[in-house]
Design a protein that fits this description.
Structural class of chain A: alpha/beta
Number of helices of chain A: 20
Structural class of chain B: alpha/beta
CATH superfamily of chain B: Pyruvate-ferredoxin oxidoreductase, PFOR, domain III
Number of domains of chain A: 4
Strand order of the largest sheet of chain B: 2-3-1-4-5-6
Largest sheet of chain B: 6 strands, mixed
Shape of chain B: globular
Oligomer: heterodimer
Bound molecules: iron/sulfur cluster
Amino acid sequence: MHKEFLMGNEAIALGALAAGVNLVAGYPGTPSTEVLETIAKRNPGNVYVEWSINEKAGMEVAAGAAYAGARALVTMKQVGLNVASDPLMSLEYIGVKGGMVVLVADDPGPISSQTEQDTRTFAMFSKVPVFDPSSVSEAYEMIQEAFDFSEKYGTPVFFRATTRVDHGYEALEVKDPEEYFVNKPEGFVKDPSRWVIFPRLSVKNHALIEKRNAELKNVFSEYHRNKILREEDTAKCRKGIATQGVNFMYTLDSLHDKNARVMRVATPFPFPEKLALDFLAGLDEVLCIEELDPVIERALTYVCGKYSLDVRIRGKLTGDIPPSGENSMEIVRGALAEFLKNEEDETGEDGTVVAPAAAELPQPPALPVRPPVLCAGCPHRASFYAVKTAMRGKKTIYCGDIGCYTLGNAAPLDMCDTCLCMGAGIGIAQGVGHIEPDTKCFAFVGDSTFFASGITGTVNAFYNQADMTLIVLDNSTTAMTGHQPHPGTGRTVMGQVVEKVSIERVLRAIGLTVVETVDPLDYALSVETVKRVADEPGVKAIIFRSPCIAISKPKGRSHVDPDKCIGCGKCIRELGCPAIILDSDGKKAKIDTSVCTGCTLCEQLCPVKAISGGAKNDTAKGGRHE
Amino acid sequence: MSKNIILCGVGGQGTILASRLIATAAMDKDIPIKTAETIGMAQRGGSVFSHLRLGEGINSPLIGKGEVDLIIGFEPGETVRQLPFLKQGGAVVVSSRPVMPVSAMIGQSKYDAEAMVEYLKANVEHLTIVDADKAADELGSAKVLNVVLLGAALRSGELGLEESDLENAIREKVKVPEKFLELNKKALSWSKGGK
Ligand code: SF4
Ligand code: SF4
């Protein structure tokens, strides 16, 4: 054992390695990404790791490995689980031989996601058991236990953590590589009655799953991480708090009433019913403190109904806890104070919650408004601006995608009219076009997301004779999640150099005849190309190719010549590049050279050529950036 | 003894590295530590913060309002945003250099950074203002602002660490050539004479 300061996701990764994981697959997505990255980095050499093209592919690869007796891990964020749900729903009926953990990172808030869906609810729907850690150090231990449970019961299990565990850091003791469990897969053993899903098998296995999950309720009641913290004086205890995940930590730090009982639920499904009965005994009221769905609240309400218990269950459904968003110390403290305040306390004070004295503050001046923006020098800004200029005055719709380019929605670009889920812009552009034939329909997709879920939509468009322009914003990386490789980069996470999948060739193979590749930082050529291509009939594509600024070195920095600048403000107003500010008199443009990448876009725009010094990366013609 | 610290700024300013440096220094001294970081979309120029909790008996990685001993602000407006977390008598170290949001540059919002500094002066007794432009000029680099601020935080007395602890952490964490190590050391001690 040795001590390390680890991010939650790193701890989960090291826990999986300690559990002898043989194969890890996944698709990047905040807040899950660092799990797979850490496994790749800390690979003792015998673990197969891949970034799959999407979560469905990853789920299937992991299932195959688990069929062969390997310990397998698949990682994704909560919306990725939607993509992977098709194989997972059936996989639960088939089961696994080696332990298989489906790691899903949920994002209350949401901080970096489209939805506030709860994987605990998905667990009930798919009948897959779920583990819900409360802290970084616990996650390290718990994922090892999850592998054991999975293997013992022959079922995939969910390991779902939320942002504050995934992206929290703690110093903890972890095993040395020599101490890792070694799992030797037996290999796949042919048995059609086990591995081939047919209605007959499904109905048989459905019954077995229900029986197993009923048994797991009891098993989980004994699982040491499902626990009750008892009150000091049972005669005085009338109120209980049921909680989960990081909310358990907020509760521990806020609650100072020694006569309240606390239940922490580590496996919300199958719900540890016996333990809950024990918890509810003698209580009048329970407050459920949880994030996302009221899973514990519903489970306890059910238990009370089933056993005719006269305990009032409160939480989200009763308005005691906010129905949406992330909880904070303030929310938990406030809810606890409210819940416990009627306590018949001889001292007459509630004394239940430590509310520190904050300094009294007057109203501050208007705080800066900072929605996230495209980075200085981001080639997506140039692509959006070229399309915007080329289509000025025309009736258009710009259907966006999930990734950095979602940030193209912000003023002054205002180039994202719709955004739904990964790849959806391609289908939405078609649908709008079928209803409004006079609209120029554009769909924007990234390079990684093109492979993840853009290809089927494009085939659909081509086959069904849609009229639309597909814009692929190819920056040679998966940028938003921290620069993962994908099929177009010619690298794998294991460090192999492989044949690149060419987006152009894929598009041409589908049947598109107009497929053009342009460097978006060549402003005039980009505008001209968009004008020309958008006028072609049917489905056509432009690939804007220029590397993400985070993976390429700037070749120069631009600066404004104050003698030439006429202060027209065009560079600031049109582009919204965070590097361009005003000089101290607030009259002329000035470039912050510590963030400017010298992309030259503003140079090409300035009407009096006052800006110079940049040097753009030139990769559209000279082949792909590595 | 426990310490609650918030680092705040704008995505891209280096708050996460600074938070790692404090954590590394604390861990080397066997002080238990928990942190929560902003990772994701907000890193693209949005408001970011790190919560750090040092000491025994801590469960939650997030800090509640009125519980923070020290705010290390990389930007005046972001520091004001976090001020409700400061406990009575807590310390603030702040860089005077604003980062103008695009929304203000194009006239969609207003941001008066000087008013922020004035507000901090009026409402924080234990305040250290770091002149980031002067530091960048004298050190010849704007990239070590995070280390300059850590130095000022050390001298506020609220960090609970020594200069040598942070120096060691820089050596461990910032694995760069000797000359950058020198620059970082200079940055760490800059606020001794510089403010
Ligand atoms: S060259 Fe102009 S547009 Fe490009 S990063 Fe620098 S300031 Fe921004
Ligand atoms: S576009 Fe040119 S002239 Fe106009 S403000 Fe910018 S640098 Fe000055």
